[in-house]
Specification:
Helices cover about 45% and strands about 15% of the residues. The protein has about 350 residues and is of the alpha/beta class. Strands 2-1-3-4-5-6 form a six-stranded parallel sheet, with helices on both faces. Helix 9 links the parallel strand 7 and strand 8. The longest helix has 19 residues.
Length: about 350
């Protein structure tokens, strides 16, 4: 029997969702996690605490499945020799070289170096999209260049690349239950991303404000996780678009969240940084018509969607055309291959191959 240990230093958001769903589809899985807060501290020091949890568990473990928030060499160093000898598969939800925080360059470079050393120390590396894999290696080369002996570090990337593959996240169609009911006659526009700058909320809300100024009727549903330092545009939009808002704020209940999704007509996506985009895929699975940018992972994940915009003005034009015509489409069937019933089988097969 293959006994799997999943190691997650940041048990929150999409990381938590991934662990929980894998636990359902991989019955031999035992999870070791830390609460999803203080992400820099988790990357810097979480490995020791998690290794001690594993050592004290005395669990029978055949393979470790760890995530990019873990300092893998440090984790292996704190494990008992028996555990440290087991295969280590690194799953890359995101990475710290594609969008480093420029406020403290020296400190933040350390987190990208953790990612580099972890991919080198792993048995295999799985990326959640091909876009993520390519952007990681492209950015990692330039990231490593200023380091001493950078040529040796960069040359190691060719060996690392050969042990990588793409293994996507999954969505639960049974949970979403994409029945196209409950949509009203007034077009309802959805935001369901985190309230952060890399999701480009300025482009999203400016488009809606312009449509308001031109007299278009619509409703607005804004959910997703907010933070104490969320972009100011959210405050401006809540005031300027108050007459259009039907929901504002994070939805704790997933059932309620999906019921709200199924009342929406259109999802304008403005993200500047995204490696997979679970919230976008869930909305599409719920039957919401997406307007996607021709960048990041979207063309790769949604080849059946006929239109990808190139500029903010093109986004606004497409959104205006849709809410004027009411010609919304469901592309729910295009993402059925990402259902956990299929994706879970992929994880089982790949892990079995590693152990064999």
């Amino acid at each position: 029997m293959t006994n799997i240990a999943i190691i997650e230093p940041f048990y929150s958001g999409s990381h938590k969702y991934w662990v929980d769903r894998l636990s359902q589809h991989l019955p031999q899985l035992k999870s070791f996690t830390l609460p999803g807060r203080h992400w820099k501290w988790r990357m810097a020091a979480g490995a020791q605490e998690l290794a001690e949890k594993v050592n004290n568990s005395n669990a029978d473990i055949s393979v470790f499945l760890v995530t990019d928030m873990l300092d893998l060499p440090k984790f292996k160093g704190f494990l008992s020799p028996e555990y440290a000898a087991r295969p280590m598969v690194l799953y890359m939800h995101e990475n710290q070289v594609s969008y480093p925080n420029q406020k403290d360059v020296d400190t933040d470079r350390h987190y990208g170096l953790i990612n580099y050393q972890s991919v080198c120390a792993s048995h295999e590396v799985w990326f959640n999209s091909e876009f993520h894999r390519q952007s990681f290696f492209s950015n990692m080369r330039s990231f490593l260049h200023p380091f001493p002996d950078s040529k040796l570090l960069i040359n190691r990337l060719d060996d690392v690349y050969r042990k990588t593959q793409v293994v996507p996240l999954g969505i639960d169609f049974n949970e979403i239950n994409p029945v196209l009911v409950g949509r009203g006659s007034v077009p309802r526009i959805l935001w369901n991303n985190r309230w952060e700058h890399d999701k480009n909320p300025e482009a999203f809300f400016r488009a809606l404000m312009n449509l308001k100024d031109r007299g278009h009727a619509f409703e607005l549903l804004v959910c997703g996780e907010s933070y104490s330092k969320s972009p100011r545009i959210f405050q401006e939009a809540r005031k300027d678009l108050s007459a259009y808002i039907v929901h504002w704020g994070f939805v704790e209940s997933r059932n309620q969240y999906f019921e709200l999704l199924k009342t929406c007509h259109v999802l304008p996506v403005t993200n500047n940084q995204e490696f997979f985009g679970l919230s976008v895929m869930e909305a599409i699975a719920a039957g919401v018509h997406p307007i996607l940018p021709n960048r990041l992972s979207y063309p790769e994940l949604y080849p059946e969607i006929p239109f990808f915009y190139e500029s903010d003005s093109e986004l606004e034009s497409e959104l205006e055309g849709l809410i004027s015509s009411g010609q919304f489409q469901s592309f729910s069937n295009s993402v059925k291959s990402y259902d956990w019933s299929e994706v879970g089988e992929t994880y089982k097969r790949l892990i079995s191959d590693i152990v064999d």
